[in-house]
Amino acid sequence: MPELGDREREGTIELLGVIAYGSISGFTRMAADSEMARDLVLKRALASMAVREFQSHEQLCDHIVALGGDPVAAMAPFEDAFEAYHARTRPRDLLEGMVKAYIGDGIARDFFVEISRYVDPAARAVIEQTGGLQADRDTIVAAVRRGIREDPRRGGPLALWGRRLMGEALTQGQVVAAQREALSELVLGLSHDRPGATLEEVGELMQRLTDRHQQRMARLGMSA
Amino acid sequence: MPELGDREREGTIELLGVIAYGSISGFTRMAADSEMARDLVLKRALASMAVREFQSHEQLCDHIVALGGDPVAAMAPFEDAFEAYHARTRPRDLLEGMVKAYIGDGIARDFFVEISRYVDPAARAVIEQTGGLQADRDTIVAAVRRGIREDPRRGGPLALWGRRLMGEALTQGQVVAAQREALSELVLGLSHDRPGATLEEVGELMQRLTDRHQQRMARLGMSA
Q1: To the nearest whole angstrom, how far is the Cα of B47 from the nearest Cα of chain A?
Q2: How far apart are CA B3 and CA B122, in angstroms?
Q3: Interchain CB distance below 8 Å, A54 and B55
Q4: CB contact under 8 A, A47 and B40
Q5: Which domains does chain B have, with CATH numbers?
Q6: Where is the Ferritin-like domain (chains A, B) (predicted)?
């Protein structure tokens, strides 16, 4: 078990809790959205993305327990934010569902990789293994591009949809960050003796998240 | 690779196809139903049952490929039957969803174990590892019993619901069996040199399925 100070431990459990709840809610939504796919190859790609979320969820919960925390208690504070995100971004059809799976998974992965720089190596290792498989992402990207090629009128609204996903994710992320003190202290390096993020670095982090989002949108054939 | 005659191979691929489609459609429905659970322990149990279905699906597809078949083509003939089953048994709330997860998983497992007696050992091994985990089933059974204890008026309608699930499963099963000749030949031992089922044994098999269904209903605190 890693030796963490109380406050660092608390912040780490909060961080693992937010990712763990994000994973189980991502699992549920993505699995439900996979029902819209009639094409079995696509259905399997979406289902496989969802299953990876569940596996991440389990590993994150195991690590919360290893740190002496209770996974259900650790996840509870983040329920509202994720449920609000999903309620506000319910895909109306398969194309929207696929864009959400790809864009949402991407934003989450980027964020976790960024933030894992500020946690101890054991938690970092657990966080870094989250996220979907490249093969499934490739299947989804190809299907979205095909969908837009077949009906070019979908391109504009889907680009708006992608922007909205990013906007809602940032909104809910800020709600969470503002409420969780131990988590903010962890990122800012106030609860441990490794270097934390300066405010300038937090700004740069946001810029990188935005850049990578634009790259994903471009891969889907859309401008962000 | 197992050495099967053409007709046996065809029947085995049909059997793996029906189970593989049942697994992916079970995954999707069960994962979607897990969204109704607010209790995280329950949500995880339902999600875990769903994930097991997906893992079964992948292993079944791998074995179809190993036999020289195409999983998507092998599953296609069974899509309508499963979609009809799920459309006719859409849970209206979490209690119905949990009863469906437990009862449906149980009927499927019983059926697969019975039928795997008539296939070659390699396919049998793949089929036998399908189905949920005992710990998840126990969590679900306890939650259903608790739900009925808290609101005893739910008991009667839920027992009817359990009977309906069994009825719909048998109906769709018979539709499938009547349509798939190679599969029927496999079970009746007409396409290989191991003993097949006599008609009397098919009757006994149905009786065992019914008996075990009643045991599960009793475990939920209901009479079948």
Answers
A1: 7
A2: 10
A3: no
A4: no
A5: 6-219 (1.20.1260.10)
A6: 7-189
Q: Answer whether A34 sits within 8 Å of B50, measured CB to CB.
A: no
What's the CA gap between A178 and B223, in Å, rounded?
Answer: 52
Asked if B48 reaches chain A (Cβ–Cβ under 8 Å), the answer is yes
Tell me how far apart the alpha carbons of residues B91 and B38 are, in angstroms, rounded to a whole number.
16
pLDDT in tens, chain A (224 residues): 557 888 899 999 999 999 999 999 999 989 988 989 988 889 999 999 999 999 999 999 999 999 999 999 999 999 999 999 999 999 999 999 999 999 998 998 898 888 888 899 999 999 988 888 899 999 999 999 999 999 999 999 999 999 999 999 988 888 887 778 888 888 888 888 888 888 788 888 889 999 999 999 999 998 76
Determine contact: B66 vs chain A, CB below 8 A.
no
Torsion of CA A208, A213, A218, A224, to 10 degrees: -100
Provide, as residue numbers in chain B, all residues whose Cβ is less than 8 Å from the Cβ of A75.
40
Q: Are B127 and B119 in contact (CB under 8 A)?
A: yes
A47 touches chain B (CB under 8 A): yes
Report the C-alpha gap between B42 and B93 in whole angstroms: 14
A83 interface with B at CB cutoff 8 Å: no
Q: What's the count of helices (H) and strands (E) in chain B, helices before strands?
A: 10, 0
